[in-house]
Amino acid sequence: MRTALVTGGAQGLGAIIVSSLVQAGYRVAIADINPDVAQHLVKEHGEEKVAVFGLDVSNENSVEQVLDQVEERFGLPWLLVNNAAVMKAQPVLEIDMPTFERIISVNLCGTFLCSQRFARRLVAAKQSGRIVNIGSLAGQNGGSATGAHYAASKGGIHTLTKVFARDLAPLGITVNAIAPGPLDLPSVAATIGADRLPALKAALPTGKLGRPITVARMVVEMAREDADGLTGSTIDINSGLYLR
């Protein structure tokens, strides 16, 4: 049984990804800044399949400690899902530097740090593996309902995906990203505002918010051992809002 490490897996999209990976046969290590929130997933799936660890993805020591703990509990993971993120909708002229730096630190630096430290361990152990990054439509079109800090962080994640994919491909490690548009999640409704949801849905070519389970299923597909020809890619799941 292979192990997956999912950052930001306690709730929302991360929790759905965790459940999909368990159903696909993985043991899953949930690493989250709020580990207590993930206890419902342990109760749902069992301690033999799910374990929870406190993690600050922007802190080097925290990342190394959690990787040590996961290895001790489940062994070296096959899959890393970089899902941890901070989202904030804010006009560009109103963004202060502490907020900008925090979002970049968690979303972009966290993805870099977790990917680098995970990949180092795979290389040292001479093992192949998979990394899946959760990007965003905002990182492609500049964002229409989020802030410049969030959009910039997600655009950076898409670029990191290409860099890591290029450098790690000869070592048997694939790196891909998923770029969701608006998803049917409470966090999205809270960010956009419930009063604006009807107009948003009407603007989508499909007329519907994206299904989080579609993103989770794509993570499972990207992590397959026989998906070794898929690397450096960003898969769009955006209800037809952005076509390229």
From TrEMBL:
It comes from the Bacteria. Residues 2-181 form the Ketoreductase domain. Pfam families: adh_short (PF00106). GO terms for molecular function: 3-oxoacyl-[acyl-carrier-protein] reductase (NADPH) activity. Signal peptide: none annotated. It is an enzyme of class 1 (oxidoreductase). Gene3D superfamilies: NAD(P)-binding Rossmann-like Domain. InterPro entries: KR_dom, NAD(P)-bd_dom_sf, Sc_DH/Rdtase_CS, SDR_fam. Keywords: Oxidoreductase. Its EC number is 1.1.1.100. Belongs to the short-chain dehydrogenases/reductases (SDR) family. This is 3-oxoacyl-[acyl-carrier-protein] reductase. It comes from Acetobacter pasteurianus subsp. pasteurianus.
